[in-house]
Amino acid sequence: MKEKDIFGMAMKAFYFDKDETPIIVHSPDFDDDEIAIEYLFRSYSEMPKTEQKALQLSHGKVLDVGCGAGSHSLYLQQKGIDVKAIDTSEGSIAIAKERRVDNAKVQDFYAENEQYDTLLFLMNGTGIIGNLINTDNFLNICKELLKPEGQILIDSSDLSFLEDEEEPNDEFDRKYIGEIDFSISYKGKQSEYFPWLYLDFDMLKLAAKKNNFNCELIVEGDHFDYLAKLTLKND
């Protein structure tokens, strides 16, 4: 039987028992990798500059999507910002509440129906889109959730550096480099595989323009990553 809440299991073990066993990330496209659980509990000073900048720019009523242990929401709370933290992981939300995130709920982003000044998608925020073909639907839902002068703050990475330069470039049916299937495991329990999207900035900007958004590159990170801000164009 596949385990659905790997992140929740690992966060609870770390928070309550100081268990630092990492989460293992599996993909048919790459070698196995690890996620250090303590990184999910990082403070503002330990965050990459893309995340720090996103938190600096967050304002008004904020929706923190895929909040995990609540590190971003806690920082915003301390600044006096009204933030709602959501995640599909019950264990993650339980830990976010333990850490005193005031408004944390087990919820899918696609089920949200309130409006916000800031939609915050961090730790490869474009991953929630899943596949390139879902980008328009994602942005249309964001439109419904944004207040008139609202903003989307979202980060991702350009994985084109991983492409084999010797591969032919005329394969029209070749999958976009940023579309990855992942599974995660922890202490012998493994999740189902799920789609995750890394979207390079040019592709994001193209999708934004198509869906009537302005798209601004805010800051570039140290590992082909970036933070972007999207705002609705005035009709």
TrEMBL record:
The record's listing under InterPro entries reads: SAM-dependent_MTases_sf (IPR029063)
Transferase: present as a keyword of the record? yes
Q: Write down the EC number.
A: 2.1.1.222, 2.1.1.64
Question: What are the GO MF terms of this UniProt record?
Answer: 2-polyprenyl-6-hydroxyphenol methylase activity; 3-demethylubiquinol 3-O-methyltransferase activity
User: Keyword Methyltransferase, does the record have it?
Assistant: yes
- Keyword set, alphabetical order: Methyltransferase, S-adenosyl-L-methionine, Transferase
Q: Which SUPFAM superfamilies would you find in this protein's record?
A: S-adenosyl-L-methionine-dependent methyltransferases
- GO biological process assignments: methylation
Could you tell me which PANTHER family the record lists for this protein?
A: METHYLTRANSFERASE, UBIQUINONE BIOSYNTHESIS O-METHYLTRANSFERASE, MITOCHONDRIAL
Full protein name: Class I SAM-dependent methyltransferase
Q: What organism does the record attribute this protein to?
A: Zunongwangia endophytica
